[in-house]
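Give me the fold.
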Amino acid sequence: MKIEFAAAASTSGAIAVPVYEGASLSAAAETLDGATSGAVKRAVAASRFSGKPGQTLEIVAPSGVENSRIVLFGLGEKDKRSASTLEKAGAAVTKLLLTSGETDVAVALNGETDAEGAARAALGARLAAYRYDQFRTRLKDDQKPSLETVSIVVDDTSAADAEWASWGAVADGVDLARDVTNLPPNVLNPETYAKKIEGLAEFGLEIEILDEVHMTELGMGALLGVGQGSEFESKIAIMKWNGGKEGDAPLLFVGKGLTFDSGGISLKPGAGMDEMRGDMGGSAAVVGLMRALAGRKANVNAIGIVGLVENMPDGNAQRPGDIVTSMSGQTIEILNTDAEGRLVLADVLWYSQDRFKPKLIIDLATLTGAMLIALGNTRAGIFTNSDEIADHLFKAGNDSDEPVWRMPLGPDYEKHIETKNADIRNVGEGRLAGSISAAEFLKCFVNDRPWCHIDIAGTAMGGMSPKDDPRQPSWGTGWGVRILDRFVRDNHEG
């Protein structure tokens, strides 16, 4: 779908105009009301539309204007309008018209917001327009998207275009993250995923792929153990963006990339196992972020690194009771082969901090079902040794509508991964504090560097937002791209 910015609305196609709380018409809505002999106010009076954020009201084929339809959209209280409100408004209009048969809509925001606000409305439109129809061959015409162009009417089109160059790149990153999360596991495996990542070089990223020979030489027994039952070779993909000052330490983003997690020998229940194609949601967020940073030419040095593995039951698969040696030299007793993501991250974290000497490390993983029980599907849990990172992520999460909540770490939880048979074990004590014990496990592989683990088990798939958020139309949510991009924008770009 095309996004453009215009100084005036077209008289053809649909036109969307804002209304504020209490059915207070904007200037554009008042103009249309006059042109239609009061049809706008009559439609409002005959409905339950009141101008609340996210509300829409459609008037089809109105007399007095050439536009095919008028869409009223709510912006809430005028003095409390935010970028989030504008995003949701752009998304709500797009959702309403996406399969309506309409091909074009002009969203009248001139006189209502600045260039950034207009770009954020466009971002909402792009997020809402996402479809994953790659394998749907029987869609009827009325099920297919018809909307081709969203034109945002704004006072300064040049400034809006400049803003969109940045926010449009974020939309590209989110869409990429959604795409790879949605792909079925017979299409996306560690090898095909690595090739897809190699294609990101066209955007200016430096790409490097490590194979199993290299990982064996490095001593990555934790990661390699997870993938030894798969027919596909495990990979590590490294993405570098050098947009900052030469010599500045990079920000490091690490993602868990289990392209399918059967649980291994500790086999998962059959019900819902299909959704384990999304167990690479952490890697999707990192890949999408790197696409966004490169697309908007972010003024920062950043490295994204993802461990790409498939966890399958097989005669050669890892067994409960195995003891493996990680790259760090620490030995790990495997008590449950379904606690595999932390094993992948253990070696990737150790390798990346040792090689790249980053300023800070943030890892993302669909790591524990316990996180979903604790926070549901609207917030991700963060575990960190840095109050500064926690504060910055909390603000970035609220500003991007990808909120997080800080969870505890500490010596009283370290005992959960103690064992008499190795240095540590890969699961805690029963079901107690499962997300925390997993984070404590990861902490063993980051030394004292500023680090944060984000458990996105509840937000990466299935829809992290409330059902009425039109920005979230997809099972694979792309969660993580927006909060991390905001984290970088606000705190680490010169």
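The first helix runs from residue 27 to 35.
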